[in-house]
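Regression test attached.
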Amino acid sequence: MRRYSAFAIAREAARYHTGWERAWRSPAPKSDYEVIVIGAGGHGLATAYYLGKNHGITNVAILEKGWLGGGNTGRNTTIIRSNYLQDPSAAIYEKARSLYETLSQDLNYNVMFSPRGVLMLAQTQHEIRGYQRTAHANAIQGVKTEWIGPQKVKEICPIMNIHGPRYPVLGGLWQARGGTARHDAVAWGYARACSDMGMDIIQQCEVTGVEQKGGVVTGVQTTKGRIGTKKLAIVVAGHSGVLADMAGFRLPIESVALQALVSEPIKPCMDIVVMANTVHGYMSQSDKGEMVIGGGADGYNNYTQRGSFHHVEETVRALVETFPIISRLKMLRWWGGIVDMTGDRSPILSKTPLGNCFINCGWGTGGFKAIPGSGWGMAELVAKGEPGPLTAEFGLDRFTQGRFIDESVAAGVAH
Amino acid sequence: MLILECPYCGVKADETELHGGGEAHLKRYGPGSSDADFEGYLFHRKNPKGVHFERWRHVNGCGKWFHAARCTATLEVFGTYPAQVTAPPKALINKIKKKRPDWEGWT
């Protein structure tokens, strides 16, 4: 693989850009692999990448039903933060955030990580207490966050109306080193690096069955035929339940639709990410100038990647109150993704009842920010067969033991 | 927009008038059951991509709980029925089977 560099751009400019290589190969599947990863989204590709980079396992296939990065990786609002309350969450999300800082150099691919800062607004007394508590917890965990008052909020985000009639802004939890990254580039960068290590990324290849012998996985049936494997990693987000059913076990997961929308592009007006959980909306401005807006999840099981009107109305109404300048903006695009929700709103990175089969799912409404950390931990789990320090608390057994990582109530995050 | 007919008051209510209550007809395991059964009852869900039986509450209407059969892949609604049953009515199951010959049936 030729490296991308300023020199490469100059070289290609001199020969009319005829020398660029394809970023990754599209090979036919081999008959056997050491590891098969199902799902070529961010988490699946990151898992494969760190299997190769950290554990030297490169005989890996990544199977993708649709196209690479076309699921939730291409549908999220690209927010990166690690200001979680519980220790296991803070550890894995902070690992991810810190990996994002050097990901472009690591992958030789510009993922456009922009540590512009993430602000979570407190608009009720309950939220003030919750976020102050989170700030203290973060201080102990070594995650740099700060509680700031309404004047500071206005200073770092001048377009905000902090004196809204229903929910005035009372302060916020500020993580200066959070931000955004280019979601497609994260998938593409990992894919290019995986392909460079000799891994096979096989798109348009849907898994239709999981083969097992004596309680151990032996291969998968796909729309491109049978492929054998010693180890299987299921990393498919919304369709985790469908894959688990093929592998013969059930998950504590329900799949629902989460939606987002973007406005027409406007001149730069907001250089941070703002989340307002009481009124249920969050917003940032993309490099193209579009306001990227995320809303709430639907309240029922759903596999259709569509939004619903009343959710958009609720979200936009709330944001117009907080950001009056967006009231005349036209919305350009609107889409939904299928997110896999667990009972405690924390992910599952775990061994499964099927031998040598591992699952990474349950990231719910907030998976993008975790991609590098999730891949790092999952690769260790798959390579060694046992969870490492990042993933030990995220096993399926926590539901038997009642050992939840309760982020849904404690952190006041948007769910 | 999802529209369900409340089997009690007969109102065709859209989803803003309703509240989803998750998978229907769960078998309850309580004290004395095995850990695995209790865990399954509390957390494990079928979460199918296809026919799903679920609980709904007509919150901004008559307030009653009821059941609905719905496809999670297309949002097609097969029917609704009252809450006081432990399994879907036969007629509804037959109706779904007719529409979806590949459906594995209610288990």
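Expected vs. actual: identical. Confidence is low (pLDDT under 50) at residues 410-415 of chain A.
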